[in-house]
Amino acid sequence: MRLGIHMPLKGGFEKNISRAKAIGCETVQLFPGNPTGWRLGAPDPVLFEKRASLLDEQQIYPLIFHSAYLINLATPSPDFLQKSKLLLQATMERAAMYRSPYVVLHTGNHGGQGVEQGIEQIIKTIDEALPHWPPAVKLLLENTAGSGTALGSSLEELAVILKSFPPGTLGVCFDTAHAWAAGYDCGSRKGIEELLEQFENKIGLEHLLVIHINDSKAACGSRVDRHEHIGRGAINLEGFKALLNQNWPADFPFILETPEIGSDWDRVNLETVCSLLE
Ligand SMILES: [Zn+2]
Ligand SMILES: [Zn+2]
User: Domain residue spans in the chain?
Assistant: First the structure.
């Protein structure tokens, strides 16, 4: 496994990479642009190539792109859907320019049109977009806390979407704080073992490609998405320990998305996670 953080945009790419390296990151995640905006800046292939080379030099991989929160493939609004499609396409292309293999996407909010309808729309939208995506970049659906009309908080819902495509077309990014909020017990060895077994049976562990390792301020099953520093929230360290010490592939990324990203808390959280490794 490889351990890293979600990198802030503030301060600039190069500075943040050297900081991430200095505190021991082996992988990083970033937003391709303002996470609450509809547009990415104009592409600059020379600059992006330079940045990709810097990551190579620093041995930081994989680079993971987290798509903007605005993108919602399950939205009932045609205008919103059109904007979502364009921004997702741009994000996939941007990831390819950085030689990033993964784009993480929150599964979506059906906005009142219903779970079935929402999931159907996600599948249809991805199916139409797939031929236009760079082949080296894979879309990973992130499980959600399940608040409001959010889809993808259960392994079952993720499985329905993934299984609509040939195996390996899409992957999953699993967030511990979201799973916890959605009612999965991530805080005990038994809970983690059951969760991984369910994942294997319903989706297949080979499709789990990134883990967001976050503690949660909210209670298990609360459907509230509030991340906390590792060991300071409601999820017991026993669960994190059990999760981290599975037999993960050598380049499998664990990403911290804990509060106050960009502060010294990054180092503290990385140290806490490292202390759990056996
Ligand atoms: Zn996310
Ligand atoms: Zn996450």
Answer: 2-275
User: pLDDT tens-digit profile of 139-169?
Assistant: 999 999 999 999 999 999 999 999 999 999 9
> Relative to the alpha carbon of 227, which ligand is closest?
2
Q: Which of 231, 201, 200, 198 has the alpha carbon at shortest distance from 216?
A: 231
Longest distance between any two alpha carbons in the chain, whole Å: 50
Q: Please say whether the dihedral angle defined by the alpha carbons of residues 122, 124, 130 and 132, taken in this order, is positive or negative.
A: negative
What CA–CA distance (Å, rounded) separates 17 from 55? 8
Distance CA 183, CA 166 (A): 29
DSSP state of 87: H
Nearest to 31 by CA among 82, 95, 119, 75: 95
CATH 3.20.20.150 fits 2-275, yes or no: yes
Centre of ligand 1 from the C-alpha of residue 219, in Å? 19
Of the bound ligands, which one is closest to the alpha carbon of residue 106? 1
> Which is it for strands 215-216 and 227-228: parallel, antiparallel or unpaired?
antiparallel
Q: Between 97 and 9, whose confidence is greater? A: 97
Ligand approaching nearest to the C-alpha of 107: 1
DSSP character at residue 133: S
DSSP 99-125: T--EEEEE--B-TTS-HHHHHHHHHHH
Taking all residues of the chain, what is their mean pLDDT, rounded to a whole number? Answer: 97
277 Cα to the center of ligand 2, angstroms:
21
- DSSP class of residue 205? G
Give the count of beta carbons closer than 10 Å to the beta carbon of residue 38. 15
Instruction: For residue 63, count other CB atoms closer than 10 A to its CB.
Output: 22
The one-letter amino acid at 180 = W
